[in-house]
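Researcher: I'd like a candidate sequence for this fold, 172 residues long. If you have to choose between options at a position, lean toward the conservative one.
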C-alpha cells in the first residue's frame, strides 16, 4: 500500500523520500532534532530479520518514521503531506488485513517544538546561523518537547531556511 501510493498530480511515489535516511552531510540538524531516525530500508531489514514480534511492533516503526517526518518538516510541505498520505494508506491496509483498528492521530508531532521555535527566533534576532538550545529545555526520546527529559547543553537547531523547506525536499 505504501509503495503503491502515487501522487496523482506529479506521478511520483509518495514513499520515495522515505526509502533512505536523510544525508548526515546535507542535513546534520536532522540527527539533532530526530532522536530515533528510521527509514523504509531499515523497516525492510527488520522484517527480513524477523525483528517484529507483532503487527503492532511493525506499525510502531512506521508511525515513528511518519512522526519524524512531521517533526522535522513544516506542515504543508511535500514531505509532511506525504507522511500523512502514507500513514493513512498503511493503517487502512493493516486494519483491513488484521481486522484490528490501526488508525492513529496524525500531526501529533509539532514541526518545531517550542524550544526550537524560541531558539530560531533568538537566532534570527542575533543574526547567527545556528542557535543553541537552552540547557533548561527538555525533550523526550523521540525529540519532542517534554517536561522531564534532559537536553544536552551543546544541542543546536537548524537555522531559518535550512532543511524543512516549504517544498519539502529535505527528506524525512
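Model: Candidate sequence:
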Amino acid at each position: 500500500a505504501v509503495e503503491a501510493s502515487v501522487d496523482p498530480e506529479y506521478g511520483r511515489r509518495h514513499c520515495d523520500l522515505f526509502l533512505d535516511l536523510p544525508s548526515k552531510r546535507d542535513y546534520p540538524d536532522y540527527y539533532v532534532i530526530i532522536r530515533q531516525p528510521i527509514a523504509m530500508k531499515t523497516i525492510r531489514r527488520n522484517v527480513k530479520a524477523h525483528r517484529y514480534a507483532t503487527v503492532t511492533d511493525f506499525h510502531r516503526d512506521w508511525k515513528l518514521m511518519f512522526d519524524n517526518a512531521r517533526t522535522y518538516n513544516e506542515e504543508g510541505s511535500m514531505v509532511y503531506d506525504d507522511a500523512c498520505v502514507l500513514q493513512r494508506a498503511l493503517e487502512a491496509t493493516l486494519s483491513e488485513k488484521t481486522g484490528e483498528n490501526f488508525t492513529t492521530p496524525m500531526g501529533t508531532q509539532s514541526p518545531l517544538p517550542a524550544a526550537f521555535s524560541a531558539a530560531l527566533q533568538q537566532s534570527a534576532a542575533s543574526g547567527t546561523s545556528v542557535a543553541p538550545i537552552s540547557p533548561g529545555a527538555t525533550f523526550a526520546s523521540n525529540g519532542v518537547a517534554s517536561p522531564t527529559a534532559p537536553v544536552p547543553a551543546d544541542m543546536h537547531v537548524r537555522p531559518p531556511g535550512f532543511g524543512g523547506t516549504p517544498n519539502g525536499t529535505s527528506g524525512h
